[in-house]
Structures are given as C-alpha cells and as structure tokens.
C-alpha cells in the first residue's frame, strides 16, 4: 500500500510535474554554487577592480593625448589666423624673406598705412600669442630663406640668432621633416640658451600666401608640466605612471618624473597593443599612438599594484558568497511557485476552451513571457468569437442572397428575348426612342444577372451609360450626362455594379425634374499609389450638413457594426470594395452641399485584365 502511494506521489509531483524537476535542478546548482561561488565572486570582483584601474588609466592617457592635440591645434590656429589677416600675412612674409634689418625699415615705411585694429606688426602678433597661453615657454620663428631665428621667451626679452649653415647645425636641423610634435632640438636650445628641460616642441610650416612656397617655420615649446593638469581628475585612482614618447623613445612627459631628459629604457619592449610586459617588473602596458603627430602616450601599471588594490576584497567576497548561496536556494523556490500558479491558470483555461467554453479569460497583465502568452490567448479567443460571429452572419447573408437569386431566376432568357421582341416591334413602328430605352434596359438586365463579380472598367462604365441613357431619353432636354475614362484603364477590373447605386441615388434623390440643367458626370483616372479614382458628380439637390455628417459616420463603421439592410446603397459599395481589395486599399468618400450637388469619390487598386476575365 505504501509502495503504491509512493509511486502515485512520484508520478503526480515529480515525473509529470515540470516545475518540481526545475526546482530540483536549481537546488542542485545551488549546492554546486556553495563550492564554487566564493572563487567565482572573488575572480569576478578582482577582475572588475583591475578593469576599473586600467580604464581609469586609459581615460588619463586619452586626456593627455587630447591636451597634446590641443597644443598642436593652437599652433595651427596661430598660423591660420596669420593667413586670414592680409596686412599681417604680408608683414610676416616680408619678415621671413628679407634680412631682419630690412624688415625694420619696411615696418617704418608702412607704419602709417597699417590698419589700427589689426596686428600689422608680426613681432607684436607673436608676442601677444605668447602672452595669451601660459603653457608656452618659448615661441620661435625661423626663416628658411634668410636663415635666422627670432625667439620670444615667456618673461624674457626677444632674441635674434643669425645663422650660417656652414658654421651651425640649426639650418640642417630645421630642414628635417619631423612630426608636428617632437622633442626640443638640442642645437636650437643650445644656440638660443633656452631651457629644454620638461618641454615638448610643436612646429608648423609658414608659407608665402602668393606662391605657396615654404618660407619658414613656427616652433613653439610647451611646458610638459601643463600636461599634469590633464591628469588631475584621475590622480586619486591612478596607478603606475603615464609617459609621452617620441618614435625614438625620447621622453616628452613623465607623470612619475623619473625619466625626463632621457630615452625610456624599456621602449623596445612596448607594443602598439594593450598587453602584459616585463619592464623593471611585470606590468600591464597600454599605448595610444598618433603617427601623424609623432608621439605615443604609454600607460604602465605594475602587477603588484593591481594585486594590492584587490587584496581587501577577499573578506567581502566571503560574506557575499554566503548571502548569494542563501538567495540562490530561496529565490528560485518562490519564482518557480509563482510561475507554476500562473501556468496552472493557463492550463485550466485551455481545458475549458476544449469543452467549447470561450467566455473565460486570463487575468494577467504582466509584461513577461507568461503574461504575453496569456494576453495573446485572450486576443485569440476574442478573434475566434468575432470570426464565429462574422461567419454566422455571412452564412445568413449568403442564404438571403441565394433566396434572392432563386426569386430572380424567372427564366432570364425568356425576359431578355421578350424585351428584344418588344424593341423590334417599336423599331418597326418608328418609335426609336422607345426602342433605345428597351435595348438599354435589356443590356442592364443581362449585366445584372451575369455570374462574374469583377468586370472590366469599360464594361462597368458602359453599364452606367445605359442606365443614364434611359433617363436622358425619358427627361429629354432636362437631363444630360458625360463619361470620361483614361484609355489605359479600360481593362482594369472593378467590382460589378459598384457605380450604378450612386447613379440610382441621384435619380431618386437628387434629380430635379423642374430644372432644365440637370447633369451627371463620371470620370475615371489613374491616381497616385497605383490606384484608380472614379469621381461621380451631379448638380442635384445635395445634402444638408447634418445628413452628410451622419452618412460619413455610418460609412466609417466596420462591416460587422453596420445594420442589416436590403438595399444596395453607398454602404453596399463600400462593403464590397473592402471585401475584394481590403479595408486599406479601397475606399469611398462623399462631399455634398445643399442645393449645390453631390460628389462621390471611389478608389481601388489597378488590376489586370486576366483577373477580371477569370471572375
């Protein structure tokens, strides 16, 4: 007995219960987590801490690189501003192309002609640029034509150094093709007695605006200590040090201050990618290179500093491990129980639907997968109910149509032949107008009892012409009509009898027999988006605004919301268009004014002749 109960319990709560299996699996994972979680948490947090340290160093390197680029941009901007001022450009060009003594005589001769608001004097212009930037130590203008060097020093007097390529290495040094950012040239610094300690040089070519030939260079020495301001936001968390090196390994900047004025001894061990490297000790190395500007920003973090930053995490990891193990056991149990309850509701509703009860709904508004399944199931039941209702109504309408068709089958051939006999009789008696009316009526009858639901547009318009011709003959000179059609649309299919109800509405409600100018016009043209637009316009009685608004509201209702009617009106046209082409591809619009007539616009997609011929 106990064995049978155990088996029943196993089948009910274990073998056939997905959530019990899921909970058992999660519990097993939790047991394994007790063993491995401490190690995994420590490894993860330690790696995260190392990543934060390296990311902070990377941001510091990018800040230093941005400051170097800003220095280069400022020098380029000085040269660009020089070109934009015509008087200043001419002044600098003369300065670089003539001996310095001739330049002073040139300045004296042109003093009264120079604009007061500009920098007509090149010497004054560069002095102001030096004073405007506190990070500039020296600014030098070199003439490659006359081979002299004019220098301005922050807090000092200008210097002029006239050179001779046979006696000095400076012209050769200035002629070298160097990157825009480099180490200070020792020959230039020695010749001018400049301080080259903790300085990096930025150079820009100066050309003659007229000939575009290079006439000289602008050389600016920036203080490397100014780069420390770029590191200030990162210093609290910065580990290791940051360097700026030339391609030859010359140190332009060192946040630690140890390698200034020398070649970095481990430059050959640094690659262009982030990697581990053994320098004076094992370290993590990151490199940002700018080949055009000619420098590399290098970040070095010793591994021992990374290890020291993560040493305090062990105790925290142990505490978090115990809490994580507890949560790993409890939270899945609550989650599985909640999911089981919600899934059970869905299963019970499905069983009700299997019995034919479509009234039930799942009351679950959550946005997760189970909530979406429940909401989708509710929508499916709603659509199923609507479909059943629509098919039921459609079946009723079909039966009504079949009944009407049976009633209409009073030997149509007999009626058509009889009308033809009457027409021939009228012709023989000379009643041509009566014969024409009988012929039009016969054509209308044959078209209406045809089996096709789609006909070519020319045939539908011809049917409309026959219908209007009956009333033109009847009212003689008091009624006229016109029909226009784009010839390219003649074979396009249209829903049969989609125009005749509009004409009938006009004859019944709009035509005024007391007037002599009654008119009805039809036009069929090709509209945008691959559509046919048929416009039916009359000058009849029209509609009051309230009646027009009520009609438009009835036309906007979906087919299932329409009231049953036995007449073929505008609603009948719109319903058939929607049935054949879809609710968005076809439509109908009415515009009317009392005493001014009514315009009905119908649109539907352009079709093919084969389609109309086959239906």
Q: In a few lines, what is going on in this structure?
A:
By secondary structure, this protein is α+β, with helices and mostly antiparallel strands. 51% of the residues lie in helices and 19% in strands.
Structural notes for this entry:
By secondary structure, the chain is an alpha+beta fold. It folds into three domains: 330 residues, PAS domain (Beta-Lactamase); 51 residues, no CATH class; 116 residues, Heat Shock Protein 90. Helix content is 51%, strand content 19%. It is built from 18 helices and 18 strands. The strands form four sheets. The chain has a six-stranded antiparallel β-sheet with strand order 3-2-1-6-5-4. A five-stranded antiparallel β-sheet has the order 8-7-11-10-9. Strands 13-15-16-18-17 form a five-stranded mixed β-sheet. β17 and β18 form a beta hairpin. α2 packs across α9, α2 packs across α10 and α13 packs antiparallel against α14. The longest helix is centred in the first third of the chain and has 67 residues. The two termini are 73 Å apart. The C terminus is likely disordered. It is a multi-pass membrane protein. This is Sensor histidine kinase. Keywords: Cell membrane, Kinase, Membrane, Phosphoprotein, Transferase, Transmembrane, Transmembrane helix.
């Amino acid at each position: 007995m106990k064995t049978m109960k155990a088996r029943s319990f196993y089948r009910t709560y274990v073998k056939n219960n997905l959530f019990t299996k899921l909970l058992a699996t999660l519990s097993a994972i939790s047991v394994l987590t007790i063993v491995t979680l401490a190690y995994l948490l420590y490894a993860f947090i330690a790696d995260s801490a190392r990543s934060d340290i390296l990311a902070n160093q990377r941001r510091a390197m990018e800040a230093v690189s941005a400051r170097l680029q800003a220095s280069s941009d400022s020098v380029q901007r000085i040269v660009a501003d020089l070109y934009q001022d015509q008087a200043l450009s001419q002044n600098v060009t003369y300065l670089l192309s003539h001996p310095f003594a001739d330049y002073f005589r040139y300045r004296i001769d042109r003093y009264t002609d120079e604009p007061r608001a500009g920098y007509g004097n090149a010497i004054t212009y560069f002095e102001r640029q030096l004073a405007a930037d506190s990070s500039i130590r020296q600014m030098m203008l070199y003439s490659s034509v006359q081979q002299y060097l004019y220098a301005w020093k922050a807090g000092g007097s200008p210097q002029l150094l006239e050179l001779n390529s046979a006696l000095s290495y400076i012209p050769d040094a200035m002629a070298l093709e160097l990157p825009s950012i480099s180490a200070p040239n020792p020959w230039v610094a020695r010749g001018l007695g400049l301080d080259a300690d903790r300085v990096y040089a930025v150079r820009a070519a100066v050309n003659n605006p007229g000939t575009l030939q290079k006439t000289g260079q602008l050389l600016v020495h920036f203080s490397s200590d100014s780069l420390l301001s770029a590191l200030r936001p990162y210093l609290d968390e910065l580990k290791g040090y940051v360097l700026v090196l030339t391609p030859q390994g010359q140190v332009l900047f060192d946040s630690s201050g140890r390698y200034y004025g020398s070649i970095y001894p481990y430059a050959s061990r640094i690659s262009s990618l982030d990697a581990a490297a053994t320098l004076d000790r094992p370290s993590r190395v990151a490199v940002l290179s700018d080949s055009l500007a000619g420098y590399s920003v290098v970040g070095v973090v010793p591994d021992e500093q990374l290890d020291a930053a993560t040493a305090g995490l062990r105790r925290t990891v142990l505490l978090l491990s115990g809490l994580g193990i507890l949560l790993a056991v409890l939270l899945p149990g609550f989650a599985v129980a909640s999911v089981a309850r919600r899934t059970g509701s869905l299963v019970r509703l499905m069983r009700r639907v299997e019995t034919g009860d479509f009234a039930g709904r799942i009351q679950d508004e959550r946005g997760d997968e189970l909530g979406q399944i429940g909401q989708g199931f509710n929508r499916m039941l709603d659509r199923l109910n609507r479909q059943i209702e629509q098919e039921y109504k459609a079946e009723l309408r079909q039966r009504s149509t079949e009944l009407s068709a049976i009633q209409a089958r009073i030997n149509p051939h007999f009626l058509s032949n009889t009308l033809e006999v009457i027409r021939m009789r009228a012709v023989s008696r000379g009643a041509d107008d009566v014969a024409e009316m009988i012929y039009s009526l016969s054509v209308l009858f044959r078209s209406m009892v045809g089996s096709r639901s789609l006909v070519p547009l020319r045939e539908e318009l011809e049917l409309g012409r026959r219908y209007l011709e009956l009333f033109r003959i009847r009212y003689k000179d008091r009624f006229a009509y016109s029909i226009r059609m784009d010839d390219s649309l003649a074979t396009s299919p249209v829903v049969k009898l989609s125009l005749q109800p509009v004409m009938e509405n006009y004859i019944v409600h709009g035509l005024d027999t007391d007037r002599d100018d009654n008119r009805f016009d039809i036009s069929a043209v090709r509209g945008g988006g691959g559509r046919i637009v048929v416009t039916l316009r009359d000058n009849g009685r029209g509609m009051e605004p309230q009646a027009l608004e009520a009609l438009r509201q009835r036309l906007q209702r979906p087919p299932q919301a329409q009231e049953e009617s036995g007449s073929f009106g505008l609603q009948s046209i719109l319903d058939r268009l929607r049935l054949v082409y879809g609710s968005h591809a076809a439509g109908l619009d009415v515009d009317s004014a009392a005493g001014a007539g009514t315009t009905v616009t119908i649109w539907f997609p352009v079709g093919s002749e084969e389609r109309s011929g086959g239906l």
